[in-house]
Give the backbone structure.
Amino acid sequence: MAYEVVIGLEVHCQLRTDSKLFSPAPVSFGREPNHSVHPICLALPGVLPVLNRRAVELAVCAALATHCKVHTSSVFARKNYFYPDLPKGYQISQYEEPLATGGYIDIPAGGDADEGDGKATKRIGLTRIHMEEDAGKSIHDSEVTGRFATHVDLNRAGVPLLEIVSEPDLRSPAEAAVYLRTLRSILRYIDVSDADMEKGNFRCDANVSLREAGAREFGIRTELKNLNSFRNVELALGSEILRQAEILDDGGSVVQATMAFDPVSRRTRVLRLKENADDYRYFPDPDLIPLVISDADVDRIRDELPELAQARYQRFQDQYGLSEYDARQLTISRELAEFFETAVAAHGVAKTVANWVLRDLREALGERELEDAAVTPEQFAALLRLVDDGKLTPKSARGLVPELVESGGDPEAWMRERGLEALSDTGVIERAVDEVIAAHPDDVDRFRSGEQKVQNFLMGQVMKKTKGKADPAAVRELLTQKLGA
Amino acid sequence: MPDSRPLPSVGELRRALDAGELSSVEITEASLERAESIDGSLRAFTGMRSEGARGDAAASDARRVEGKGLSSIDGIPVAIKDNMVMEGEPTTCASRILEGFVSPYTGTAVGKLRAAGAVIVGRTNLDEFAMGSSTEHSCFGATRNPWDLDRAPGGSSGGSAAAVAAGIVPAALGSDTGGSIRQPAAHCGVLGIKPTYGLVSRWGLVAFASSLDQIGVFARDASDAALLLGAIAGHDERDSTSIPEPVPDYRAAQTGDVSDLVIGLPREYFVSDGVDAGVLDAVRAAVAVLEAAGAKVREVSLPHTRYAVATYYLIATAEASSNLARYDGVRYGRRADDPSGLSDMYHRTRSEGFGDEVKRRIMLGTYVLSAGYYDAYYRKAQQVRGLLARDFQGAFRLCDVIATPTCPETAFRLGEKTGDPLAMYLGDIYTVSANLAGIPGVSIPCGQSSGLPVGLQLLGGTLAESTLLRVADAYQRLTDHHEARPTAV
Amino acid sequence: MASLARLTYSEEETARLAADLEAILDYVETLGEVNTEGVRPMEHVLPLETPLREDRAVAAMAPDRAVANAPVAKGFAFVVPKVIDGEEEG
C-alpha cells in the first residue's frame, strides 16, 4: 500500500551563554564531573532560580528569525519526574504559555539543501519555541562505573536550551534532514547557538506516523528519542517508517510508543509504551514570576538581529545580479556569505568571486568548515586579481586554492615561490604554437576545413607544452592568427 | 548572669552592652546555659552552635570596645529555625532524610543577621519541613510549650517560639507558610511577625510551599521585632520573588500613636462557632484598648474566608510535592541502605526518610497536580486565592489594619490532634489567608484564657509592616500582657 | 500515585492514608461552591515581572565541596545504582 509519511521534529539546541539558565555556574564542555556546578545546579536545600538575561535575548532572536510571535508574557513551569541526573526532581521548562508560537522556516524543496535549484521552497510551520534547562549526564559505561553503578555528572545541569517544535509538515526522512540543516544554519547565522550535534548542543526527537496516501487523519505516531547526527535522523526515520509500513501492510496497527534508535543495528526499538508514560504534573514554577518581554524589547532585539539567510539571498540577487542558484548557495552559511561579500568588496566583480567561491573554495574546503580555513577573503580576492591581470592562469590559480585554504598568505608570494607566473613572453608562446602546428598537420587541415572545435585541442597542446603557464587569451589569439593566415 | 534565668529583651540587653554592664560573651554564655538547663525538657533546639557562638560573641565584644559596633543587634544571641541554611552547619528540617547534611552556603536572612553582628546560638525545632501546626512532626521529638509541658507550642516554628518564650534567646527567626510563626507565637505568648511575601529573601530557606513561605521574627516585644526585621528585610537578587523596595526604619515608625488608624474587624472571623470564648474575649478587649487610644474600629467583610483552609492545603501540598522531590538520596542527605536498584533506592530512601505528615502532604499534592485533577483542584484553588486576595484589597480600602484572633483556641495537648490531620489543618483558619494574599501579619500576646496565652492577630496591606509594628508597639505601651512569663520552665 | 511520588506504603498504611486523603478531599470539595468563572488563577501575589540576571559566570564550586554531602561519590561523580536504559526516564 502507498503511505504518506508524516514527520514532526522537536529540536533542542543549547543557547550560547557564559552562565547557566537559572544559575551563575559557568557553562563548560568536557570538564571533569561536577567541576562546573553551583549550589543551584545541585538543587541544594534553599536555592532559588534567577533567569539569565542573555538566554532570553537569544531565545527571542531565534523566535524572530523563525517568524514566531513572541509573547509579552510567558510562564516557566515545572515538569516533575524522577531521574538521577535531574537534581530538583523537576525540570524548569515552559508549558502552557511558551515564549513564542506560530512561526515557520522555508526549506529548499525536493529534500536536498545543496542541490535544489534555489527556486522551489517549502514552508515548514513551527508550533512553538520555548526555553528550558538541560539535565545532567548519567554515565552508564560499565568500564567507568563498574557493573552495578551509574555515575551522575551535573556539569550540564541547568545549561540553557531552546526547544523548537515543528508542525507535522515534513514528508520524508530527507526532508527532515534538510529542515534540520536549514534550522541549524539559521541558528548559527544569528549566533544563538553553536548548534553542534557532536557536542550534543543540537539534539533532535522525531514524531513519525504513516497514513494512507490522500487520507486526512493522522496515523498513530511513535516518538524517536535523541537522534544525535543528521545521518542518524535519516537512518532512524527510514528504519521506523519501514517498521510501521510492515505493521500496517500486515493489517496491524502501530502502538504509540517512545523509541530509541540503535545506529549499529540501524533499527529502532521500543523504549516505553505511551500508556505507561509519566504524568509530569506541570504547574507554574512559584519561584519564578512570569517573564515579561515588552514590544520595545522585541524591537530592540530585532534591530540587533543579523541579516537572515532569506533576506540575504534576495539581496545577493538584487545587489550583485547573481542567479538564484548562486545566491542560495552563497547564503547557506553566514560565514560563507560574509566571506563572499568581503571578497567582492576587495575584488570588484561579484560574478567572478561567486564562481570561484562556489567552485574552487568549496571544493578545497571539502568537509571542513570555513571558520577552520586560513585564507582570508582579501587574500582570495588578491588571487583572483592575479588572474585578471594575466599574471596567473586560471589553472595555476585553481591549483593554489588548497594551499591558500590550508595556510593562507599572500597569493603573489605563493605564485613566485612555485614559479607559476604566467608566460607573457610572446616569443616563447609563439614558438610553442609553431611547434604544435608543425606536429599536428592533420588537425590543422581539419580546422581549416571548418572543424572549429579542433582549435580547443590545439590550444590544449600549447598549454601542455607551456606547462599551463601561458596566458590562454594570448595562445588563442596567436593560434587564430596563424591558422587563419 | 551565671545561673539559668530567662534572658531579657533585645532592648534591655543592648542597654546593658552599651553601658558596659554585660559583654556579648556573657550574654551568649547565659543563653547557652539556659538552653543547657531547660532544653532537655523543652526540646526547643535541634542543635546548639556553642563554639561558633562563643567566637562570634568575642568578636562582637572586640568591635564594641573599638566603637565599631555593626548594628543595635550586634552581640545579641539569636536562634534560627532549622530550615535555614548556614555554611558549615547542619540543616535538618527535623527530617531523617537530611541526616548528615552540612550546608556549603549561607542563606540571605541568616547572612544578614550575622552581618549585623547577631550571634547565632543554635537551630530550633520544627515540624518536619515546616509541615505542621504543633512541632510534633519532628524526627527529634516534639517541642513542649513552656507554659505547660504537656501541651504543644504550636508550629511549625514551635522551637523558635518556645525558645523566645522560655528566655533562651531574646529573639529568633521562623518561617510562616500558613501561620507557622503567628500560631506558635500565640500559643507561647510571644510576638511573631510574618512579613509581606517578598520582603525577606527566601534564598537559603528550605522550601515547603514556595509561593507562601516567608521568613519572619519572634521577639518579646514590638520594638525588638522592629530591629530584627529591619536587619533581615530587603531586596535580594538571588530571589526572583524578592521585592525591590528600600526597607523603612520600623523602629522610628513606632510613635505610640494609633489615632490616625482605622481597625477593621472581619465579621467572618468573630463567630462563636468553633472559637474559644476566652480567646474571643481577650481579642475584643485588646481591640477596645486600641479604640480607647484613638483608633477607629469598624466591621469589614472577608467573604471567602471559609474557603481559605481548603485553598491553602491544595496549593501548599501541590508545591510541596514538587519541592520535596529533590530529596532522593543522590547528592546529599540519607540514602536507604543497600538499595537493590534505582527504583528501590528512590522508594525506600523517601519512605524511610520522610515522616507520615510529610508523606501525606506529598501524596495529596501529587494527586492535586496529576493529569485530570489539575483544573478541579490546583487551578480552582489558585482562582479562589485570587478572590481571597481581592477580599483583602476591598477591606483595606475601608481600614488600615485588620484585627482577628490568631487561633481559634489556646495551645492544645500533645497528641490531641495528631490522629486527625483535618482537625489540625482547621486550626489554621485565621492565619492561612495572609499567606494566600501575600500580606503581612503579626501575632501579639493579648492576655490569657484558662492560664494559657491568647494571640491577637493584626493584618495589614502589602508592605504595611511599619503600621503593624506601630500598632503592636502602641498596644504594648498600654498593656503588660507581653511581660507575662511562662511558669513551667 | 504513590509510585509517582516514589513512596511505598504497606497495605495497612495505604488504608489509613486513603481514609485521611478522602476526608481532606471531601473537605476541599467545598471550593466547588465558589463561582470562579473568569477569575485568573493567582499563582503569584506580587505584581512583579521576573527579574533578569546578567550573563556572568561565577567560579564553580570546588568539586570536592560539590560532592561532600553525597551518600556515595566516586571521582567527583555522584554514584547511584545502575540505571537500566530507559528506566524512569523523562
Q: What stands out?
A: Chain A has three domains: 3-296, 307-418, 426-484. The CA atoms of residues 238 and 296 of chain A lie 45 Å apart. The two ends of chain A are 71 Å apart (CA to CA). DSSP finds 16 helices and 17 strands in chain A.
